[in-house]
Design brief:
This protein is an alpha+beta fold. It contains four helices and ten strands; from the N terminus they run E-H-E-E-E-E-H-E-E-E-H-H-E-E.
Length: 167
């Protein structure tokens, strides 16, 4: 099975838009990693996230705003030869991004960020109460670098190839 880089911006964005969660990795002052699955919105190479005003992740990010954000499409089990264990692999596409979290404090920008997040999950328009906007922490991550790959692609000499959905 092969792994191929995804280089076209349109294809990278297609992977991001296909995902319902992203995984946000950060490191505390001792270098201990901390990874959160999060809802997100994406617009023009910026990831928008939201959380409570306080918590472990906020404490980490106040000291070290660097994050790694990972997206992965739903994987499917593939193999080239059903009898050869080493020919099995998961097939999916992934995007890995790096950037720095900036917390958005301006009311109208927070509403805009919430709209971008909700547009990822629904075509509806939403309104937000002033207390809700005030009490949410908006994370804005301008993406500094992006790498993307498609993995589990059958090789040109594959004897057999079978897609199977994994539940």
């Amino acid at each position: 099975m092969r792994t191929h880089p995804l280089e076209e911006q349109e294809r990278i964005e297609k992977v991001i838009h296909a995902c319902t969660l992203c995984y946000v990795g950060m490191a505390d002052e001792n270098g201990i990693p901390y990874v959160l699955p999060m809802n997100f919105g994406y617009d023009d190479e910026v990831i928008y996230l939201h959380s409570a005003q306080e918590g472990h992740s906020i404490s980490i990010l106040e000291n070290n705003p660097n994050v790694c954000i990972t997206f992965c499409t739903d994987p499917g089990l593939v193999w080239q030869d059903e009898e050869v264990a080493c020919s099995y692999r998961m097939r999916a596409e992934s995007v890995i991004c790096h950037g720095k979290v900036a917390f958005e404090e301006e009311y109208d920008e927070k509403v805009n960020a919430l709209n971008i997040i909700m547009q990822h999950y629904s075509d509806r328009e939403f309104s937000y109460s002033a207390p809700a906007v005030k009490n949410v922490k908006i994370w804005k991550v301008a993406l500094e670098n992006i790498s993307a790959k498609e993995f589990g692609v059958p090789g040109t000499k594959a004897v057999k190839y079978k897609d199977r959905t994994v539940f």
